[in-house]
Design goal:
- This protein is 23% helix and 21% strand.
- The chain has a three-stranded antiparallel beta sheet with strand order 7-8-9, covered by helices on one side. A two-stranded antiparallel sheet has the order 1-2.
- Helix 3 (82-90) links the parallel strand 3 (75-76) and strand 4 (101-102).
- The protein is built from five helices and nine strands, in the order ββααβαββββααββ.
- It has helices at residues 53-57, 60-65, 82-90, 120-123, 126-139; strands spanning 21-27, 34-39, 75-76, 101-102, 105-106, 109-110, 112-116, 150-154, 161-165.
- By secondary structure, it is an alpha+beta fold.
- The protein has two domains: 1-96, no CATH class; 111-165, no CATH class.
- The chain is globular and about 50 Å long.
- The chain binds zinc ion.
- Zinc ion (ZN) binds next to helix 1.
């Protein structure tokens, strides 16, 4: 892992899927250096500067925007520890979604985004499948196979999975 590609524990596969970063030599508005990994996801704030992965991870983007309500996620978040909530909302690249969804939290800790329900590899994990079935059952539907509407999350230091439903 190089300095230009910081790790985001709440969105650990940010560079591989989600299309929220692209390789780019564009200059970052925050640090004035070439982005290397330019953020292409949404920034919910009054301004929308070009930003690199480094400036998201180290909080420079948050300082640059100087807007306490700014967020990189289009979510609802309940009962999360405030420090972890700030990290997830302001120092973690956004998870692409159709609509705002409720980000799963267990014991005050937000879970990490693991992937979506179209990924057959994830669906092969029995605990992931049961989490999707449980979320679908709660919504009154039957889970019938790969779906773009399930967002899968795993505990940071644990084995529990939770699923958020994200309908278009
Ligand atoms: Zn930067």
């Amino acid at each position: 892992m190089d300095d230009h590609q910081p790790y985001f524990r709440f969105n650990p596969h940010a560079y591989e899927h989600g299309h929220i970063f692209e390789r780019s030599a564009d200059v970052c508005d925050v640090c004035s250096r070439p982005c290397v990994w330019k953020y292409t996801g949404s920034i919910f704030a009054k301004q929308s500067p070009s930003a690199c992965a480094r400036c998201i991870a180290d909080g420079e983007l948050a300082r640059f925007l100087d807007d306490e309500h700014f967020a990189l996620q289009d979510i609802e978040l309940h009962e999360a520890d405030p420090e972890l909530a700030a990290e997830l909302l302001q120092r973690t690249p956004g998870v692409a979604c159709f609509n705002p969804f409720e980000w799963p939290v267990l014991d005050g800790k937000p879970l990490a985004f693991f992937g979506n329900g179209e990924d057959e590899g994830l669906l092969a994990i029995p605990d992931v499948r049961s989490a999707i079935e449980a979320a679908f059952a709660e919504a009154g539907w039957e889970f019938e196979g790969p779906t773009p509407y399930a967002l899968i999350f795993q505990e940071l230091e644990g084995e529990r999975f939770r699923v958020a439903i994200d309908l278009d």
